[in-house]
Amino acid sequence: MSTVLILPGHGNSGAGHWQTEWERLHPECTRVMQVDWESPDCIDWFECLEKAVSSQQGDVVFAAHSLGCLLVAHWAERTEHTIKGAVLVAPPDPQSVAFPSQSVNFSALTSRPFAFPSVVVASTNDVYGSFEFATQCATTWGSALVNLGDRGHINSDSGLGAWPEGWALLAGWL
């Protein structure tokens, strides 16, 4: 059985968010806690993720949301670890006016495909990242792309609850 590392974005994922629901429902899920959720620094977040992956005994799968997706991109470029796969939901565009200004060092994204299978899940009306940006990420990272239609930032406001369709995207790696 693989461990699913939950990688929330800026501000963490609260009640009603699909990541929180997955952690509650699936014992194989573990949230990677960050030093500072409100003023994220990519270097600090990378170190927390690297430590979390290093501490796992078996296979690892990522379930990333928002800024967590950009963290995965930075991690994939610098780590020596391997994982089984990643679901990357609602990647935010660092060039967007809506991108949190207090998020430091996340903008220089890799231009190489990931060394692991991945799926980018995006909405057509996400204020933090356009569908075009998500498509660009999927192409660059070598990821499959899933279009959820008009679901906003695919967070608790999207009303997905435990989001079984999302869980199905990573279930093959478990």
TrEMBL record:
<dbReference type="Pfam" id="PF06821">
    <property type="entry name" value="Ser_hydrolase"/>
</dbReference>
<dbReference type="GO" id="GO:0016787">
    <property type="term" value="F:hydrolase activity"/>
</dbReference>
<dbReference type="InterPro" id="IPR010662">
    <property type="entry name" value="RBBP9/YdeN"/>
</dbReference>
<dbReference type="InterPro" id="IPR029058">
    <property type="entry name" value="AB_hydrolase_fold"/>
</dbReference>
<protein>
    <recommendedName>
        <fullName>Hydrolase YdeN</fullName>
    </recommendedName>
</protein>
